[in-house]
Amino acid sequence: MVGGGQGAFIGAVHRMAARIDDQFELMAGALASDPVRAKASAKELGIADDRAYGSFEEMAKAEAARADGIEAVSIVTPNHMHGPVAREFLEAGIHVICDKPLTTTVAEAEELVELVKTTGKVFVVTHNYTGYPMVRQARAMIANGDLGEIRLVRAEYLQDWLTERLETSGHKQAAWRTDPSRSGAGGCIGDIGTHAYNLACFVTGLELDELLAQLSTFVGGRRLDDDVQILLKWKGGAKGMLWASQVAVGNENGLTLRVYGTKGGLEWAQENPNYLWFTPYGQPKQLLTRGGAGALGDAARVTRVPSGHPEGYLEGFATIYAEAARAIRARQAGKAPDPAVIFPTIEDGLAGVKFIEAAVSSSASNGTWVQIT
After folding, report:
1. 108 pLDDT band (50/70/90 cuts)?
2. CA-CA distance, 291 to 308, in Å (whole number)?
3. pLDDT digits (tens, 9 = 90+) for 135-161
4. Given this model, what pLDDT does residue 180 score?
5. How far is CA 142 from CA 146, 202, 206, 256, 277, in A?
6. For the residues 316-341, what does the mean pLDDT come to?
7. CA 97 to CA 325: how far, in whole Å?
8. Would you tell me how many other CB atoms lie within 10 Å of the CB of residue 232?
9. What is the pLDDT of residues 154-183, one digit of tens each?
10. Mean pLDDT in the chain?
11. HEC readout, the chain
12. Cα separation, 46 vs 62, whole angstroms
């Protein structure tokens, strides 16, 4: 692991998720930008002294040279370090599991795409919500034609934790997420807007054509956006909207997706992730449950416990890690992974960075339509 040391949030989430299905063991780490804190963090996690590194460059070189070197690296740093760290480990011949967004610029993301092609390594972007069973259910139902031709797609991701200027209080997570030098050109849009966008693409299978965005900063003195409102035009004619906010008081983690076609509609909410509402046109609304009647094989293969027992955030992350393990083992054996194995790829990561860049550009131009290239 690179990043995720003392005081970090997402690193611990990744470590827990990676172990849920007994597919990964944490062997080495460069867990902080400060070498002293990095090694202290590694000691707390039981990492051997000779594999507790003061820098990611040192770690990549040393691990690549070991007979028992790591097979994959998990990158859980602030956004601006994703690209440099990923590049170092790909060039060292090590598979990469990287938090989102992929990078802070399209140019850097495109360079990584080419490097993945050259090295042949597995590259996974941890859009964890794609691992939820009922999200997989929704994706399969749309692919099966249960909704008919898709007309409307609405995604929301609402929080309120940045309603005040928390970044000035010493709050580590708020500080880097609102700092353009570490977060990139997007604040809210890069942090949670990309999750909503990726979820919409993953479930519907649609590709975005154009967007019109308004990025707002409501908290005085903040350097990046804390509210995002976007109109979407999908290739093929579907239309949509995306709203992401970190100043929507009363919302904790309100990620929702609604998709409507010529034959029916689907609704899913992350805060009740084991439920999926399906409404065939002209019929009563149906509640589909994880592991319950009507669950498809796509959902069942990533379901761990019986119906009625909640699965959620950590298990969604765990599914991405388990799929990564399957892909890595297949690559090591010189085979293609089972077609059922699905995870956000380097190309999905590039699409997310293009989405951020287009939205920032549109908003800076006072809300003009920008084509996704």
Report:
1. very high
2. 8
3. 999 999 999 999 999 999 999 999 999
4. 97
5. 6, 11, 11, 17, 13
6. 97
7. 10
8. 24
9. 999 999 999 999 999 999 999 999 999 999
10. 97
11. CECCCCCCCHHHHHHHHHHHCCCCCCCCEECCCCHHHHHHHHHHCCCCHHHECCCHHHHHHHHHHCCCCCCEEEECCCHHHHHHHHHHHHHCCCEEEECCCCCCCHHHHHHHHHHHHHHCCCEEECCHHHHCHHHHHHHHHHHCCCCCCEEEEEEEEECCCCCCCHHHCCCHHHHHHCCHHHHCCCCHHHHHHHHHHHHHHHHHCCCEEEEEEEEECCCCCCCCCCEEEEEEEECCCCEEEEEEECCCCCCCCEEEEEEEECCEEEEEECCCCCEEEEEECCCCCEEEECCCCCCCHHHHCCCCCCCCCCCCHHHHHHHHHHHHHHHHHHHHCCCCCCCCCCCCCHHHHHHHHHHHHHHHHHHHCCCCCEECC
12. 19
pLDDT tens digits for 109-119?
Answer: 999 999 999 99
Give percent of the chain above pLDDT 70: 100
Name the band, by pLDDT with cuts 50, 70 and 90, for residue 342: very high
CB burial readout 126-140, b (16+ within 10 A) else e: bbbbbbbbbbbbbbb
Q: Do 156 and 244 form a contact (C-beta atoms < 8 A)? A: yes
Work out the pLDDT band at 11, boundaries 50, 70, 90: very high
Average pLDDT on 76-89 reads 98
Rounded to 5 degrees, φ, ψ at 259 are -130, 130
Burial class for 152, CB neighbours closer than 10 Å (0-12, 13-18, 19+): middle
60 neighbors 30 (Cβ within 8 angstroms): no
